[in-house]
Design brief:
single chain; alpha+beta; Protein Transport Mog1p, Chain A; about 180 residues; three-stranded antiparallel β-sheet; eight-stranded antiparallel β-sheet
């Protein structure tokens, strides 16, 4: 998780200091280790889920079945989507999950939750946190299925949110559980 957060931070620092970068794709291809993914239908290598990734987005994972990070650059702004599945203890509640999300690698004092809504992901009850931290805005979907906790985290710069929000919605609306997801 820390490497993914460092990667996200690096992307946003680059987006603020080097707007001359023409594309994300060559940068990912040359400097990010691990397994690379392109846009289109993404199927988790372990068969737990699938979702459609918009055109132009590039992804990577350090290990097969590990967290997957997708990024894109448009109009001098970056956006990212991190998909992480965690093993959780029996009795782990959605409230505990929310607390974990709001305190994992962030300063809780600097996070402002704009909304916390109930949604359905492939028929399963989930939550969506819409929040800001400094100049970043995020839509974080999370759910518990069996003993797995799913986090699907979209983020971008506040001023770029209108550029990416439809892609965030289209992507999350395409989410489907796979054959090996827990009951």
């Amino acid at each position: 998780m820390k490497r993914s957060c460092i990667f996200i931070l690096a992307i946003f620092i680059i987006s603020m200091t080097m707007p001359v970068l023409a594309q994300v794709e060559p940068w990912i291809e040359q400097s990010v280790p691990g397994i690379k993914y392109g846009s289109g239908l993404f199927k988790d290598p372990l068969g737990r889920f699938s979702m459609n990734i918009p055109s132009g987005w590039m992804g990577y994972s350090e290990v097969k079945g590990g967290p997957v990070q997708f990024v894109v650059k448009k109009k001098d702004f970056f956006a990212s989507c991190l998909i992480k599945i965690m093993q959780i203890e029996q009795g782990f509640t959605m409230e505990k999950f929310k607390t974990f999300i709001l305190s994992d690698d962030v300063d809780p004092k600097k996070v402002k939750v704009l909304s916390d809504t109930e949604v359905k992901l492939d028929g399963i009850s989930a939550r969506c946190l819409h929040l800001i931290q400094q100049d970043m805005i995020a839509d974080i979907y999370y759910l518990i299925k069996g003993r797995e906790g799913y986090i699907i985290h979209f983020d971008t710069n506040i001023s770029a949110y209108d550029t990416f929000k439809n892609e965030f919605k289209t992507t999350i609306d395409s989410f489907k559980f796979g054959q090996t997801s827990q009951k």
